[in-house]
Amino acid sequence: MSKTGILAVSFGTSYPDALVKNIQAIEDAVGSAFPGLPVRRAFTSGMIIRKLKQRDNVHIHTVTEALKSFLADGFTDLIVQPTHIINGIENDAMLKDLAAYREQFHSIRVGKPLLTEPSDYQALIDALAAEFSGLKGDEFLVFMGHGTEHHANAVYPALDYMLKAGGFENIYIGTVEGYPDLPLVKELVRKRAPKKVLLAPLMIVAGDHARNDMAGEDEDSWKNEFLREGYEVSCLLKGLGEYEAVRQIFAEHARKAAPL
After folding, report:
1. Can you tell me the mean pLDDT for 100-113?
2. What domains, with CATH codes, occur in the chain?
3. What is the pLDDT of residue 137?
């Protein structure tokens, strides 16, 4: 007799409010696409898993632990949906863990990360354009993405290119650890000389990077870097998981999950 479950895989967060507003919200959206099927959670960040255990005595499964728990409870089929933005290092690690258990399930189907195909990029752009429709001509919106040394970092400049092609000349994509980096984004914004810069995370949760690297009080935070440029600066601490349209992209990817 078959028994199907859903595994939602996230990098993770140690901020309880961000967990509820972003990760749990995406998990709920994915679950609503499959009424009656249980949704379980796994994190890929060992550091966050350890922190939650030590600080809150809360244990979040790794992908491997989650797979073992599904087997122990008699599940035969899995739908796995990552909440990752790109097909990068974390997603590769998840796929490797899943592959090790492929033969122990009747089937494992896997949904794609948020930004996988050009249609995904356009869906995200549409969602962001609707969210920030009130942006004025003398205001620039700069998104902070994570960035990576993985070749999937190409997603970020591609998304920026598509924004410009779509007529969104005052929205820029930057990254903390990849390309485009902050110095380049500052240079591009400087050429247009806006009055105000709004900073927002292009990350699933508004966690450490958003609260410290972007909006923090350190001298090299993005907020202070742009303040020194002479702009009015405001920060929006809102993860992508808080956008209904983004949650629906993940739900649709889960519906289209393909065999591992």
Report:
1. 98
2. 4-113+243-259 (3.40.50.1400), 118-203+205-238 (3.40.50.1400)
3. 87
Question: Could you give the CA distance from residue 144 to residue 239 in angstroms, rounded to a whole number?
Answer: 11
Mark whether 146 is an active-site residue.
Answer: yes
Four-point Cα dihedral 114, 210, 208, 82, nearest 10: -10
Residue-level pLDDT at 179: 97
Among the listed residues 59, 84, 106, 146, the single catalytic one is 146
Q: What is the pLDDT of residues 31-88, one digit of tens each?
A: 999 999 999 999 999 999 999 999 999 999 999 999 999 999 999 999 999 999 999 9
At residue 38, the 3 state secondary structure works out as coil
Q: In this structure, are residues 206 and 14 in contact, taking their beta carbons and an 8 Å threshold?
A: no
Strands 4-10 and 171-175 come out as unpaired
Measured torsion, CA atoms of residues 238, 248, 83, 58, in degrees rounded to the nearest 10 = 70
Task: Dump strand ranges (E) for 75-189.
Answer: 77-82, 107-110, 139-145, 171-175
- The pLDDT confidence band at residue 123, using thresholds 50, 70 and 90, is very high
Mean pLDDT of the chain: 97
CA distance 192 to 170: 9
Query: How many whole angstroms separate alpha carbon 127 and alpha carbon 251?
Result: 15
Distance CA 43, CA 45 (A): 6
- Rounded CA-CA distance 28/24 in Å is 6
Higher per-residue pLDDT: 181 or 136: 181
**How far is Cα of residue 92 from the mean position of the Cα atoms in its chain?**
15
**pLDDT tens for each residue of 189-204:** 999 999 999 999 999 9
Chain centroid, CA 232 distance in Å: 27
- Determine the Cα–Cα distance for residues 45 and 13; give it in Å rounded to an integer: 9
